Every structure is written in structure tokens, then in C-alpha cells.
Amino acid sequence: MDELKKDMPAQEPTSFLPNFCNIRTVFSVVVLAELLALILTLASSTDLRTSWRYLGLVSLYIQWITLLSAATLCLLRPALTRCTDQYTAALVYILLISIVAFVSEVTFWANDYLGIGLLGAAPNHLEFLGRNIAISAIANFIILRYLYLQHQLRRNIEAELQHRLQALQARIRPHFLFNSLNTIASLIRRRPKQAEEAVEDLADLFRATLASASTLVPLIQEIEITQRYLQIEELRLGKRLKVEWDISTIPEDASLPPLTLQPLLENAIYHGIEQLGEGGTIHCRGYLDGPTIHLNVINPFKTKPDDNKRPGLSMAMDNIHQRLQAHFGDKARLTIASSEGYHQVELKFPYIPTL
After folding, report:
1. Cα(144)–Cα(25) distance, rounded to whole angstroms?
2. What is the Cα–Cα distance from 166 to 286, expressed in whole angstroms?
3. What is the pTM of this model?
4. Residue 321 and residue 326: Cα distance in Å, rounded?
5. Whether residue 334 has pLDDT greater than 80
6. N or C of the chain: less Cβ packing under 10 Å?
7. ∠195-199-200 over CA atoms, to 5°?
8. Strand partners, 337
9. CA distance 38 to 153
10. C-alpha 192 chain-centroid distance
């Protein structure tokens, strides 16, 4: 249990607020603020000759509030990520209104003493301040509510995806377990050392099945698990089983869902090699084509009709396909083809280095 806990990645605290330390987020907020300034100018100005001057002053006022708010939220981000969503929303709400009040106060006195004309005829101080605070209170409430609902929607989607991945991973058919246990039982008296090694390989396989379904694993780890499985099958099938690997051009840090390669080899053995009296060779080939990884598993199969054809191939392939789609979307693809006594499964998925 302790080892499993060590394997699980630590979850970083999250907040429903965007990352205002990110330059793209700040740029988006600045653009939206400028659009607001343009709307306010068009709504209030009737003289086109003075519109540009008024737009510049309103933009200065709104962008000052925007950048000051973004900088404050960026500085407070480490502390806010450790708070609950409710506490964060209340704190940010009060903070943003306070910033608007501060900027409005400075703007009022600057307009009064410098005569910049931003406010037109000198308005009542409390009226100007109260109006801006009221607008800010309404706008900030709507914005924070929208961000919170979007955050909750993303969390629900991620939770649903996590449950889906766990269900898909749990459905991977471990029918080789019974054959492996029978093989180990037959080796205990005659070759106890090999039986012990087979038990260790089987334990590693089951440990892999308990890994988190939401994480991606490096290709080198998936190959190691697959080779452990093949060692068990070689004890049972002997010289009837041969596997040739040609995947040296694929980066070892390429990421893919756990237990993706092993079920492909399992199906190649279960539906191909076992059905042939003389056995055969499974070819595992792969290469990197730009940003896309191509991975092929090719095995011979019995071409003559067989009334005792084993079921389950489509279920395993559909399982792998759905997990690839869940992780990579439309960038991943699984295709199956058969010709001249050979069965081929090809996986295509983007190259994403393991972190």
C-alpha cells in the first residue's frame, strides 16, 4: 500500500480563478477591458470630435483598474490556491471592489485638481464613488459567478472522465491469469526458480493494473510490463512463441495510457499464436512521424474457418481505442487490418514527453 501511495502523483491545489501570472490571461483581460471602454465611449459620446479623447481617458481609467487587479491577484495566487472556493470568492470580491474604490478616488481628485476632463462637469463626490462601486459590485459578482460555474463544470467533466477511465481500465480482460497460474503450478516442483520468477512477473503485471487510470506512463515502462507478460507466456508456449521488436526510433519518454501495449500482445497470442500448431512470430514495430507515433502489432492467425473461434477481440480493441480517445482526443486512432494470414493493429497517437 505504501508503494502504491508513492506512485500516485501529488495533486496541486487549484482555484477557480484564472492564472493572472500568465501573460496570455493578462492579455485577454486587457483586450476585454479595452472593448468595455470602447462600448462605454460609444454609449455616452455624441460628438465624434471628442470621442477619441474621451476613449483614451476612459481606457486609462479602466486599464488602470484592470492591471492593478491582475497584479494583485497574481501576487496573492499562492495564498488563494490554499483557500476554499467560497473564501477565495469572498476575499477577491471585496478586494476588487476596494481597488475600484481606490482608483475612482484617485481619478476624482486628479480630475478636480488637474482638470483632465474625464468626468465632464464636476459631479458629486459620493455620487461618483458610489456609482462606480455599485457597477463594480454587480460586474464582479457576475464575473466571479461565471468563473466559479465554469470551474465546477470542468471539475465535473474531469471527474466523469476519471470514472470512465477507471471503468475502462478495470474491464481489461486478465484471462491470461488462469493460464499463468496453471503454468506456475506446473513449474513449482520441476523448476521452482522459474516458478518464482513467474510469480514476480505476475505480481508486477497486477501492480500495473492498479495504477491510476488518469495518468500516462512512459513507453519504456509499458514495454517492461509487456515483456514481463511475455516471459510468463513463453513458459507456457515455449518455442511456439517468438516476438521481434523494432521500435528503437520511438522516444522512450513517449507517453501512452497504462496497459495499452500489453493487451495488444495478449490478443495476438490468444487469437493468433495459440491457434497455430507451429506457433509463430509477433512483430512489434513503431516509428515517430513528426508529432505522431505509429505503433504496429502484427501476428499470424488461422485463416481457415473455425467454429470454436474465441470471442473478446473487439472488446479489448474498443477498450484501448476509448482510452486513447479519452487522453488524446481526435489525435489518436486505432485501426485493424487482416490480409494473407496476418492480423495487424496500428495505434496512432501524439508524441507527448513524460513529465
Report:
1. 15
2. 27
3. 0.57
4. 9
5. yes
6. N
7. 120
8. 344
9. 31
10. 44
